Amino acid sequence: MTFKIVLATLCTMILCGCPGKSPNQASTVINCMVTNVTDGDTIGCTTPEKKTYIVRLANIDAPEKKQDYGAAAKKHLSDLIYMREVTIKISGQDKYERYLGEVFLGNLNVNKDMVSSGHAWAYQEYLKDDQYIALEDSAKSQKFGFWIAPNPLNPKAFRKSLPN
After folding, report:
1. Of 64, 102, 125, 136, which one is the catalytic site residue?
2. In whole angstroms, what is the distance from residue 94 CA to residue 21 CA?
3. Which of 36, 63, 66, 135 is deepest in the core (most CB within 10 A)?
């Protein structure tokens, strides 16, 4: 009986195009209104059918809220897409069950804009597109965003420095 339930669930997910946790699956594309910007790399949005998504922007890592430039990263992302219609290419889910995706405002890749403007790092640990590294290098050489600081702290290093 359990096998039949699992099989039926999997078939339903495949037929409805629901994104799953597999990083190798084909992308699912959704259109939604951005209703929340949590920080520089996480948003909430709602589809016209009233389905809500929490989306972690793939390939980037923005400063944490309590970190230097965290508020600036959130503001930049908010200024770009808050209460705007976006298209998101969802590629899976993370360990917190947020959807992972690349966000587009028209032809603008918002994830890449966050890196090229110096508001996020290329998240090299999970990177799927090497262009992010070139965008980060360019922002760094031009001292955009947090790169104006002599040694900005990568969010991963910041998180490790926090007490448990």
Report:
1. 64
2. 7
3. 63
User: Given the structure tokens 């709602």, which residue do they identify?
Assistant: 46
- Look at residue 162 in the predicted model and tell me its pLDDT: 85
* Annotation says 98 is catalytic: yes
Question: Is residue 135 within a helix (H) or strand (E), and if so which, with residue range?
Answer: helix 131-142
> In 10 A of CB 114, how many CB atoms?
29
DSSP code of 63?
A: P
For strands 99-105 and 52-57, give the pairing.
Answer: parallel
For residue 80, what are its two tokens?
A: 């770009």
**Does the active-site annotation cover 56?**
yes
Distance in angstroms (rounded) separating the CA atoms of residues 122 and 54 = 20
| 39 neighbors 73 (Cβ within 8 angstroms) | yes
Residue 7's Cβ-side half-sphere holds a number of Cα atoms within 13 Å equal to 4
CA 94 to chain centre: 10
Within a 10 A sphere around the Cβ of 126, how many other Cβ atoms? 14
